[in-house]
Write a structure and sequence with these properties.
With about 100 residues, this protein is an alpha+beta fold. It has two helices and three strands, in the order βββαα. Strand 1 and strand 2 form a beta hairpin.
């Protein structure tokens, strides 16, 4: 099981395709469980997003962090995060 990005596509105004991204837990068999972690991808600067904005690369960064925290550092909830865990993730992320 890993965190992943699910892209939901829908049509509005009968001719406009809109994509929204959600952070999900993906089982090895491909089944998805929706989470509320996508709330952590919001931009602190732009409170109002255009309907065509799907979150860009923030989702990928958050998913990598969640996979590290929950499956490598083995935290049980975000309340268990420590400065050391975040520092280790950023060091690994920064070195590729």
């Amino acid at each position: 099981m890993r965190f992943s990005v699910y892209k939901h596509h829908f049509v509005i105004k009968s001719d406009l395709l809109v994509t929204r991204q959600f952070i999900v837990l993906k089982d090895d068999d491909g089944s998805l469980r929706f989470t509320n972690f996508h709330k952590y991808t919001k931009s602190p600067v732009n409170k109002v997003k255009k309907y065509s904005n799907d979150g860009n690369s923030r989702f990928q960064f958050v998913v990598k962090f969640l996979n590290f925290a929950f499956f490598e550092a083995q935290i049980a909830s975000l309340n268990d995060l420590t400065v050391q865990i975040v520092s280790e993730f950023l060091t690994r992320y920064g070195t590729g």
